[in-house]
Amino acid sequence: MSTQQKLVDTARYLIQTKGYNGFSYADVAEQVQLRKASIHHYFPAKSDLARAVVEQSRGVIEEQARRLTSEDFDPQQQLLFYTGYWEKCIADATAPFCVAGMLAAEMPTLPDDLAQAVQEHFRTLSYWLETVLTKGSQLGVFRLRHSVRREAEAFMSTVYGAMLIARAYASPRTFPEIVELALKQLLGTSQGHHDDASRAS
Questions:
Q1: Mean pLDDT over residues 185-195, rounded?
Q2: What is the tens place of the pLDDT at every residue in 139-151?
Q3: Which of 17, 64, 123, 177 has the fewest CB atoms below 10 angstroms from its CB?
Q4: Which residues form the HTH tetR-type domain (predicted)?
């Protein structure tokens, strides 16, 4: 792994656990065993480092969205993979909170370039969800009560809200319990997350 990637990974974890205003280059230097001056060589300002973290995450979502447009996919399974990823990360504390979510909470204090990157991240995620929900609606899997954009943003809000409540209660199990309700609503049935996941396995 390159030094630059180590810096990005370290910054990601620090943002997830402390927030943008809760860490400094001294924290990064201690984790990566580099002098602060060396970090500035790669990322002149802390906002540059944080923006690299956000842009890397957005790049992953953009690639997933491109794949959805070029191949057949199971929309319900896509949502289960998405929520299941965060369920695991929260449970084992590898990524206890989405980095973009943490930064969004600090939006008023963020530098303009970083704030814009956070906004773009959420727009990209919303687009991905819209693609999944549109396909699910066309197949009769999801029952949308509102426009696909509103449904996508409502589901996204539920996921991030569930992360927040799980952290507030120090209860990882709270996350899937909340998300399960949103999945039930989309499916329009009494079946939940774990029933669907067991059938898919």
A1: 63
A2: 999 999 999 999 9
A3: 123
A4: 1-61
Say if residues 188 and 143 touch (Cβ distance below 8 Å). Answer: yes
Interatomic CA distance for residues 159 and 156, integer angstroms: 5
In angstroms, the Cα distances linking 152 to 9, 49, 86, 132 are 28, 29, 17, 9
What's the pTM? 0.86
Q: Which residues contact 138 (CB under 8 A, 6 or more apart)?
A: none
pLDDT digits (tens, 9 = 90+) for 16-30: 999 999 999 999 999
How far apart are alpha carbons 158 and 160 in whole angstroms?
6
| Structural domains in the chain, sorted by start | 55-200 (1.10.357.10)
* One-character DSSP codes across the chain: --HHHHHHHHHHHHHHHH-GGG--HHHHHHHHT--HHHHHHH-SSHHHHHHHHHHHHHHHHHHHHHHHHHS---HHHHHHHHHHHHHHHHHHTSSSS-HHHHHHHTGGGS-HHHHHHHHHHHHHHHHHHHHHHHHHHHTTS---SS-HHHHHHHHHHHHHHHHHHHHHHT-TTHHHHHHHHHHHHHHTSS--HHHHHHHH-
